[in-house]
Amino acid sequence: DLKGIQTGLSIYYSEYGYYPFNLQELVDSNYMNSIDLSKFSYTRCDADTVVVAKSGSGFKLDGDRQTTELTC
Description:
alpha+beta
């Protein structure tokens, strides 16, 4: 599920130039399949940076860079 979210976020960012305010926007915009979003933590640090986590693992997207740092 994390990989699907990452892919959806990357596509969304490449098309709009910013990350969505929440994961539901990805589902509503058809950038990812509907999943149980309550299992994930999503933090939009700013228009170019988001952090997604689930049970202590996850990723940070900063524009086109990805890291495993889970803080803004």
